[in-house]
Amino acid sequence: MTFHIKNITKRKNSRLIGSHIDSPKAGMQSDAHELNICGWVLGQMDATSSVVIYCLRADLSDQYLGEFNIEIERPDVISHFQRQDLSIKCGFAIALPLYDLHSDQTLILKLKTNADEYIQFAEIAFSRKKISSDYQPSLNPIIVSTLGRTGSTLLMRLLSEHPDIVVANKHPYETFALEYWLYVVYQFLSEPEKHLQKADTSRFQRDFQCSVQRKKWFSNKYSTDALYFCQQQIEAYYKQIIAETNSNPPIYFAEKLQHYAGEGIPTWPYLKLLVKEVYPQVKEIILVRDFRDVILSSIYFGTKHIPGYDIEKAKNEAYLGVIDEIREFSNYYMRYAESSLLVRYEDLINDPLNTLKVIFDFLSLTTNHTTINSIVDSISNSTQNRHGHITSGSISKSISRWRQELSPEQQLLYADVFRQQLSLFGYPTSN
């Protein structure tokens, strides 16, 4: 058994017409590693937005886990409450990964209305078995969590210069060994008895499960052995890099783990949470850059080889494609702010010496001023050869470029759209 639902409590509120958790049920047990929560919730004003889930910390404060859209029509519910518009959406179906949650946990479900009110309507108490293997890694991961166009290549280059950190040393430092093998594990853990059926050949399309005992074997020993193997291969890969470079044995290996890694790859947040579960000693650096500069950099980087591209039109529309991504990134930071280190791109550029000292202190790595100076000097020349990666003419001009490149109207638009997220990371919302 992976998890057990101990109790489900319904919370009444005068601002709610009603709510119900259809599944799971109290007493339910499962060998899965994610919890499927289905039900409905209807506010007095009908206009509902989303379900926000928190977990209850030991100090009784709420820790944000995620926000999920209410997007299922439930005409049975609407007609029961004699509402005229049967198309009103009040149903939800949530697949919540259980990685990185404590063994005994209470989930708090709140309705978020279109007016940004939060109304609690249910609690789910459960216990779970954590995912682990007997493998004892000698290298622990540093994960750089970020969006694209935030300076992650520069940060990875800086980290790679420290003798206690190994990085797959090829620009732009986007070899995802950790992500690759843990994605394999993720597939095992999601539906372990069905992953073989996903093979292209019809030879493996039959059900491997067949019995309760076999399903338990898939979910327990099979998955644990798979995790052991994958952790072993991750370490073997980085030890091969160490052997090729004749380096001394390091303490960490470092990888980017960006918000989006490709279609069908559930990098955010599933693999991140899995990393934290199977590597308790993981160190996470959350790298952020002013989102307005991120958008401008993305526009110019993606269109520099397209003759006649309408840049002004892109500036007016590009933000629409990243709203959800930036909000999700910000929500993720709020969840892990206490256990991670926040690094701002602007600080990395303007004050690299002190920023690197903070990073290495966070990693508990011994460094002196001379070592940090040497690292900064070693990359300053190589950066001159990376102009293809830079879209602003120079690194110094990449900071606050939005002040010059966005019109006053565009500046107001971006500030309005991203006001909450910009303020969260300490960026100004006006010029």
Descriptive overview:
The protein is built from 14 helices and 15 strands. 37% of the residues lie in helices and 24% in strands. Helix 3 (177-190) runs antiparallel to helix 4 (212-245), helix 3 crosses helix 5 and helix 10 (352-362) crosses helix 11 (369-383). The strands form 3 sheets. Strands 3-1-10-9-5-6 form a 6-stranded antiparallel sheet. The protein has 2 domains: 3-128, Immunoglobulin-like (Sandwich); 140-289 and 337-399. The chain is of the alpha/beta class and 431 residues long. It starts with a strand and ends in a 7-residue tail after the last helix.
Short structural description:
With 431 residues, the protein is α/β, with parallel strands linked by helices.
Topology:
Elements: E1 3-10, E2 16-23, E3 29-30, E4 34-43, E5 48-56, E6 62-69, E7 72-73, H1 75-80, E8 89-97, E9 104-113, E10 118-128, E11 140-146, H2 152-160, E12 165-166, H3 177-190, H4 212-245, E13 252-258, H5 267-278, E14 283-288, H6 291-303, H7 311-317, H8 323-336, E15 341-344, H9 345-350, H10 352-362, H11 369-383, H12 402-405, H13 408-417, H14 419-424
Parallel strand pairs: 11-13, 11-14, 12-13, 14-15
Antiparallel strand pairs: 1-3, 1-10, 2-4, 4-8, 5-6, 5-9, 7-8, 9-10
Helix pairs in contact: 3-4, 3-5, 10-11
Order of SSEs? EEEEEEEHEEEEHEHHEHEHHHEHHHHHH
Distance between the termini: 56 Å
How many structural domains does the protein architecture include? 2
From the spread of the alpha carbons, the general shape counts as: globular
Nearest-integer average pLDDT = 87
Structural class: alpha/beta
- According to DSSP, the number of beta strands is 15
Question: In which order are the strands of the major sheet placed?
Answer: 3-1-10-9-5-6
Proportion of residues in helical segments: 25-40%
Name the poorly predicted regions: none
What is the CA-atom radius of gyration, in angstroms? 24 Å
Instruction: Report on the biggest sheet.
Output: 6 strands, antiparallel
The helix count comes to 14
Strand content: 15-25%
